[in-house]
Amino acid sequence: MDKHVLLVEDEVNIIEAMRFLLTRDGWKVGTHSDGATAVSAIRDARPDLVVLDYMLPGKSGIEILTELRALPDFAGLPVLMLTARGQSRDRELAERAGVNRFMTKPFSNSEVLNAVRDLVRV
């Protein structure tokens, strides 16, 4: 498959679970945990998809997404945003910032795999 996902997440348990799930499905998975340097990490990695946490240390997922959408090379990059906060206001902010899919934690394995596959069309 050789599709690359960059997981921008700071919770170790979620990182490990997502890495296991996606790797088992044939994805190359990179991780990054610091919001302040996430845009640089995404630019360097050039992934096919970003799975982005809403709340990160240093910079929020919304701020990261807004910065990505302002960069011509990353304006169309598929982004799946994960959040422990399920309020409609959070979803609206993410949609206005340009998120492709929004998922509330906890989520099922099949829900994540379906979202990732849909966003990258494998």
Automatic annotation (TrEMBL):
The modification 4-aspartylphosphate is found at residue 53. Residues 4-120 form the Response regulatory domain. SMART domains: REC (SM00448). PROSITE patterns: RESPONSE_REGULATORY. InterPro entries: Bact_response_regulator, CheY-like_superfamily, Sig_transdc_resp-reg_receiver. It comes from the Bacteria. Keywords: Phosphoprotein. GO terms for biological process: phosphorelay signal transduction system. This is Response regulator. It comes from Pseudosulfitobacter pseudonitzschiae.
